[in-house]
Design brief:
Length: 222
């Protein structure tokens, strides 16, 4: 079983990612709302409540209990669907990605997500377009990202919302922390795009919003 701090983080991620109210989850699990609040504050939870909490929030039980045995319908070969955005993530300027849209979903092994302590409800998939993140992210690559993970991390890839001439566009860039500054940059600054230099997240005219941290592009990130 996880330590209290890891359990607290896992419970918070599962509950917030489920989209359900505390009242609904409490009713389904068979506890009070005060109990839910206690779990979120301390991470202390009766182990017997975890299977129901996992079921209600759509979270693999192994996120809470890494050593839990696989049961029927949840064996080692069980998969979960991760919904795709009907828009591509620009690897160049971002704006051209608005014209690229398709309905898609990918299946991921439930045990793989559990080992990474990822809640399926928090995950989404986009496909990249452009060359600014070569060689790590190539045009057409599937990109799995965690929408509950929006804290800037130095050296990590993030899906971000970038202001454009018309509307905001999704893009994938690498985070760089310099003192108190949060910057986003291209891995391939000489490619066919306008990301020649890093851009500040807190630019007053063109602020950047983090959508989620990239966790998979054919191999795990971080």
């Amino acid at each position: 079983m996880l330590d209290n701090e890891s359990m607290r983080a896992a419970i918070r991620s599962a509950i917030e990612g489920s989209g359900h109210t505390h009242a609904y989850i409490a009713e389904q699990v068979g506890v009070t709302e005060q109990a839910i609040t206690g779990w979120l504050k301390t991470g202390r939870i009766d182990k017997r409540r975890l299977p129901k909490l996992a079921q209600v929030t759509g979270t693999p039980l192994q996120v809470f209990l890494p050593d839990a045995p696989r049961t029927a319908g949840g064996g080692a070969d069980a998969h979960v669907d991760v919904e795709g955005f009907a828009q591509a993530a620009g690897l160049s300027d971002g704006e051209e990605a608005q014209e690229y849209a398709e309905t898609h979903r990918l299946k991921f092994r439930a045990d793989s997500l559990a080992r990474k302590r990822l809640a399926p409800a928090n995950l989404a998939v986009m496909y990249g377009r452009g060359d600014s993140m070569e060689p790590r992210v190539l045009d057409g690559d599937a990109i799995l990202f965690d929408r509950s993970d929006t804290k800037p991390r130095d050296g990590h890839l993030f899906v971000i919302l970038v202001p454009g001439a018309g509307a905001e566009s999704y893009s994938v860039k690498r985070c760089e922390l310099v003192g108190d500054l949060v910057l986003f940059r291209a891995d391939n600054p000489t490619g066919n795009h306008n990301w020649r230099k890093p851009r500040r997240m807190d630019d007053p005219k063109h602020p950047i919003k983090i959508v989620g941290r990239v966790r998979w592009i054919g191999s795990w990130e971080g």
